[in-house]
Amino acid sequence: MNDIDDTTPPPGTLETERLLLRPPLPEDVPAIFEACQDPEIQRWTVVPSPYRREDAEFYVHKLAVDGWAGARNPVWCVFEKATGTLVGTQGLSHRGPGRAEIGYWATAASRGRGFTLEAVRAVCRWGFAERGLRRIEWTAYVGNEPSRALALKAGFTMEGVLRSYGEQRGEFHDVWMASLLAGEQERA
19: domain CATH number? Predict the structure, then answer.
């Protein structure tokens, strides 16, 4: 469990009614490492498998730092405000002028509580308002029904299947594609 203190939040911090989203910090490594032991996270994302502590350290110290440099590929750790517990991560990956792809995972204990939907909406609002995005894309390996249901609930429009599109540990998978355009989020 991470304590959320009352100091000035780092740049890029977002808040919702129940959540605090902020760039990963060194003290988040143990919680990220523990969360990524979940076979479902390893099954549906590109995190390494097996997931080692060094992978969590690389995520925090290299990927997150580089991602926030120029805010081209920002990532957030998502915490429940009431407990300070890590409930997931979110990221926006630059995909070209005016567009980015959202990615996320949720801890096993936090699934089904609406945290990821709340965080996705916050990250999309930030992307449209702060980055001036016109389009946010979502992809998931075909079969990841929980992620698809969440994207639809967040207002994304399904666009189809991209065959042999997503690489995961050297294998290519069919991927669902959906998008959310600037101005559409208010309808979700």
Answer: 3.40.630.30
